Thymidylate kinase
Amino acid sequence: MTDKGRFISLEGSEGAGKSTAMNAIASVLDDWGIDFIKTREPGGEANAERIRELLLHSEHLDDNTELLLMFAARNEHLVKTIRPALEKGIWVVSDRFVDASFAYQGFGRNIAWSTIEYLEDWVVADTRPDLTVYLDVDPLTGLKRAARRSAKDRIEKESIHFFNNIRKGYWQRLEQNPQRIKRVDANQDIQQVTTDVMNVLNTYREQLQS
C-alpha cells in the first residue's frame, strides 16, 4: 500500500518572497528524493485558475462573494489536484492554503472567523497541511517589493490598513497552530530567507517523514 504523501503550505502576504521560498522547499525535497508537485491558491486546477482570474481582476466584488469564490476554487483544487496526489504518495507544496482565508477574508475583510471555520470544516475537512511555512513581512516592505514585480491586481490595490490586518490574522493563526505553522522573518535578504526556509524543513524532516 502506498504511503500517503505529505502536505506543505507556504503563507505570506504580497511581496513576502513566496516564489523564492517555494524554490527553496523544492530544492530540499529534491535532496530528500521526494516525489512532489508545486501548486497554488487560488488556482492549482483548471477551473480554480478561472476563478482566480475573477478574484484578482473583477471590479466591485462583494466580500462574501470573494470568500465563497476562494472556497469554490479550493474545493476544485482539493478534489482534483491535492487529494489525488496525496493518495498516490506524492507530496504537495502549495503557495497558500486555508490560512490565507482567515488572514485575508477574516481579518482583511472582517468576515466572522466562525464563518470561515464552517467552510474549512466543510470543504477542507481532514486535508490539512502537515507543515506550514509562514513568511512574515512588514506590509510596507512587502508592497514595495510587489510593486517592482508587476502591475497591481485587485488585492494589491488595497490600503496599508488592510495588509496590516492580514498580518494580524496570520499571527493569530500562528498562535492557534504553533506545532504546524513555523514563522520565517521575510524582512531579511533573499539568501537568508532561503536558508531559514530550508532550515525549517530540515528541522521537521523526521516529523514529515514519519
